[in-house]
Amino acid sequence: MARDRSREPEAVRITSAAASRNDDIDARQRRYLFSMGVRTLCFVGAIVAASFGIHWLWPILIVGAVVLPYVAVVMANAATTRDDGVALLDHSNQRELGTGPPSH
Known about the structure:
- With about 100 residues, this protein is an all-alpha fold.
- It is built from two helices and no strands.
- The longest helix has about 30 residues, at about 20-50.
C-alpha cells in the first residue's frame, strides 16, 4: 500500500501531548482496580444485608456488583486526552509562492 505523501503530519503541542504509555497503563489499571474494589464491596455488602434481613438493600447491591464490571472495562479503556483549548493555525488553504517574476 502506497503512503499518502501529500498529507503533512499534524503538529502536536507539548501541552496537549499524551502521557507516556506506562503512565497511561498505570492510570487505567488504577481506575479498573478501584471499580473492582467497589464491586467487591457491593457483593460483600449484599451478603451482609441479606444476612441481617435488610431485604430492600441487597438487590440494589447485587445489581451494582453485576453492572460494575462493564463500567470498569469501559472506564479502563477510555482514552485520556489533554487539550489546552487553543487551536493550531490551519495553513492547508494557503497557496505557495511562485517561482518569481518572469525573466526576459
